Amino acid sequence: MLARRCVAALTGEALPRHAPLAVRQTPATPGTEAVPKDGFGGRQALAAPPAQVWQAILDAQNLQASIPGCEALVQRSATDYEATVKVGLGPLSVRFKSEVTLHDLQPPRSLTMVFVGQAGALGSGQGTARVRFEPTGDGGTVLHWWVQVQLSGRLAQFGNRLVEASSRKLSEEFFERFARVLGVPGDPPPPPSPWHRLQRLLARWLSLFRK
Question: What is the pTM of this model?
């Protein structure tokens, strides 16, 4: 190639143009998404279609009923909420003044919730919850969620394991509560204990004597 350039420079011959290199693009596989390296997640089956689930998760009353330890929640705009949440973190009971903001809304497929909470002298915390709604063949929805949490100040001294364990428990409880808000049938009641069966039997005996 260098020799050809020299000859072309001496003779005035124009070199042929080469086509630019083509960039190979791998098509995205439907239903797949990048998963962050840190954080934790899960899934929750819901007996409602994605459109109904979408409307329910944006409702302030539903959010307050679903957030564990939520003492108050006020909707400031279509995507902004303010909440007071009291949670247990190790040996402490911490009250957060929190702001919840919705991002990346793609109804009724996915959204992102960003939490920023202040705990006074104890520090602060922030987290991100990515939520995706997958329709099922029976008209229901599988809710996929992935949460990342970070604490600062004195709260960060509890260590990553304790923070993750507490955050995972709260996240699982949130989506379980949300399922109940939607009216998903819960687990059947446990069978009566032997003591309760004995009480019923005694009550029947006493009723016979009273007759």
Answer: 0.67
